[in-house]
Structures are given as structure tokens and as C-alpha cells.
Design goal:
- It is a single chain.
- The chain has 164 residues and is of the alpha/beta class.
- Helix content is 48%, strand content 21%.
- The protein has a 5-stranded mixed beta sheet.
- β4, α2 and β5 form a beta-alpha-beta unit.
- The longest helix has 21 residues.
Length: 164
């Protein structure tokens, strides 16, 4: 079974594919989809949709793990922007016939690092060690996507996937 983890963003969207062969996932592919930083929202979303659709066609995952939407009271605009990107990810998954599993950031961090309050650097270092990567996965969005795919695969192994 293949799980695609996605850390959505309007400038950088991290993605990672892990494959379940037994109880331990194997990393198949990880990377970043980059939209022009000066581009208008519709163009950024179009790039995200096209590139993510290509990833879905190439790797054919059964499940797409997507970080839950969250917002800090002081930054409501960030949540609105993230919602646009999440919507495009959900659309691409629906078009590909892939189930979307929603997962909260603290659950991802707890599954990977052992604490739901882990820093981005802790997630990066743990992912590097978990998959014996030669280098730290960068940008952090890629490490987050690997962590999301891994956490969702752990949940699938335990039989508890909450589909969006």
C-alpha cells in the first residue's frame, strides 16, 4: 500500500510517498511543488493542482494524508490561504480516486518524534534518522510531508484511518 503525505502551502507544498511492506514504511519519493512567489492566487493553485495531479498519476497512492487545518487567533489570513491549498489537494485526490485522511499536526509530531510539541528541526532530524537519509530533508515542508505520510501509514497499520 502506498501513502502520499502532503504538507500544503501556496508557495511550497511538500509531498512524500511511503510504501507499506509489513509494519515499517519505506520512503519511495519526496519533494516540493513550488509556485512562483509573486504569482496570483489562481495561478499558484493551478500549478499546485497540475503538479500534484502528476504525482498522483505517477505514484498511484491508495491514501493521501493531509494535515488538518489549524489557525492561530492572531493569524486568521494564514488559515484562509492554507484552506485554498487544502481544497486543491482534496480536488486532485478526488479526481484521482484517492481517499484523503485528515491528520492533526500534534498527532504527526507525536507519531514521529514522540511529542506533539516537537519543533520543525526535531521532525527533520527524526525523519532523517528514521529513513537513514544522507542529508536533512529540506525544505522543512518536505520533512513534514514525509512525517505526515509516515504517521498516516502507522495509523493504517493500526486500523484507524479517519477519511475526510
Amino acid at each position: 500500500m502506498r501513502v502520499l503525505g502532503v504538507d500544503p502551502g501556496l508557495s511550497i507544498t511538500g509531498y512524500a510517498v511511503v510504501e507499506l511492506n509489513g509494519a515499517r514504511p519505506a520512503l519511495v519519493e519526496a519533494g516540493a511543488i513550488r509556485a512562483r512567489s509573486g504569482g496570483l492566487l489562481p495561478q499558484r493553485l493551478k500549478i499546485l493542482h497540475a503538479d500534484l495531479s502528476e504525482v498522483l498519476r505517477e505514484f498511484r497512492p491508495e491514501i493521501l494524508g493531509l494535515e488538518s487545518l489549524y489557525s492561530e487567533y492572531r493569524f486568521p489570513r494564514s488559515a484562509l490561504q492554507m484552506a485554498h491549498a487544502r481544497g486543491v489537494v482534496c480536488l486532485a485526490a478526488a479526481e484521482a480516486g484517492v481517499h484523503v485522511v485528515d491528520i492533526a499536526a500534534p498527532e504527526v509530531k507525536n507519531a514521529i518524534v514522540g511529542t506533539g510539541r516537537a519543533t520543525k528541526q526535531q521532525v527533520q532530524r527524526t525523519v532523517q534518522a528514521l529513513y537513514a537519509l544522507d542529508e536533512l530533508p529540506t525544505p522543512a515542508d518536505v520533512a513534514d510531508a514525509i512525517a505526515i505520510a509516515t504517521a498516516v501509514s502507522y495509523r493504517v497499520v493500526r486500523g484507524g484511518n479517519r477519511v475526510v
